[in-house]
């Protein structure tokens, strides 16, 4: 199996199991609360009939709180995830939280989801774009996101870069298994290039470490978590 297929298979297995075992907003898990920067940037956008696109939405950690905030304004959150299991749970959570009419869910690979031009006021890609198949696919999706955004709209991109696995005992370092393992520098270079002419609201990178067990060994997964938030200057 090539690296992409191994990474994709690991990604699917992990999320299928995790979403089945963890409830949305369960404390102590990464689903415990929405991502602050994702919710904060929503406040910079005019709400009336707002159209939000959440790429790699999972079970709705960000989509559900956003839906709760925009429901009264006749807005919609279009939710895309690769996993049918995630979309099934998202539908159940949408019902539980009373936002079924505001959520538009679709189980599809982000690479096969064509973003229509000039359609969305807010596009979120939170831990999604590092799962596309190539640098070309990454660049194409960014171009599509940009073209799919309305005047003064915002794109909020969060992703892992430079993913490494470090054996705690031996200190041995290996390249991490992920579909698209860009260097932080390269990811920022693509982002700055595609979004030339837009206002950069946030650009930052923070090192993250998670300790896990793999094949009976203690492993540290180290990556740089980047946040890139940009706003279209629009015509006016
Ligand atoms: C770490 S989770 C984050 C979920 C959500 N964005 C959040 O912040 O809670 C990554 C999600 O991306 C989805 N995903 C991975 N590869 C994808 C792809 N190629 N197309 C669409 N979704 C994908 C996974 O199924 C998973 O639900």
UniProtKB/TrEMBL annotation:
Keywords annotated in UniProt = Methyltransferase, S-adenosyl-L-methionine, Transferase
Gene Ontology MF term list: methyltransferase activity
One Gene Ontology biological process: methylation
Superkingdom, taxonomy of origin: Bacteria
What range(s) does the Methyltransferase domain occupy?
A: 52-145
Cross-referenced InterPro entries: Methyltransf_25 (IPR041698), SAM-dependent_MTases_sf (IPR029063)
Which PANTHER family would you find in this protein's record? METHYLTRANSFERASE, UBIQUINONE BIOSYNTHESIS O-METHYLTRANSFERASE, MITOCHONDRIAL
Record's protein name: Methyltransferase
């Amino acid at each position: 199996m090539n690296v992409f297929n191994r990474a994709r298979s690991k990604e699917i297995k992990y999320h299928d199991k995790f979403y089945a075992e963890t409830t949305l907003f369960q404390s102590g898990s990464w689903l415990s609360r929405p991502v602050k920067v994702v919710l904060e940037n929503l406040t910079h956008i005019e709400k009336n009939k707002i159209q939000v696109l959440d790429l790699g939405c999972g079970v709705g950690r960000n989509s559900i709180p956003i839906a709760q905030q925009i429901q009264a304004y006749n807005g919609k959150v279009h939710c895309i995830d690769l996993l049918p299991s995630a979309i099934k749970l998202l539908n159940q959570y949408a019902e539980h939280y009373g936002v079924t009419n505001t959520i538009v869910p679709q189980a599809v690979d982000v690479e096969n989801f064509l973003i229509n031009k000039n359609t969305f006021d807010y596009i979120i890609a939170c831990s999604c774009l590092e799962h596309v198949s190539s640098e070309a696919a990454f660049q194409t999706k960014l171009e599509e996101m940009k073209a799919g955004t309305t005047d003064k709209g915002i794109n909020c991109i969060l992703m892992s870069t430079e993913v490494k696995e470090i054996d705690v005992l031996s200190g041995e370092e290996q390249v991490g298994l992920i579909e698209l393992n860009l260097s932080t520098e390269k990811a920022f270079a693509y982002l700055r290039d595609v979004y030339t002419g837009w206002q950069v609201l946030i650009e930052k990178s923070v090192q993250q470490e998670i300790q896990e067990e793999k094949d009976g060994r203690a492993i540290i997964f180290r990556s740089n978590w980047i946040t890139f938030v940009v706003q279209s200057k629009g015509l006016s």
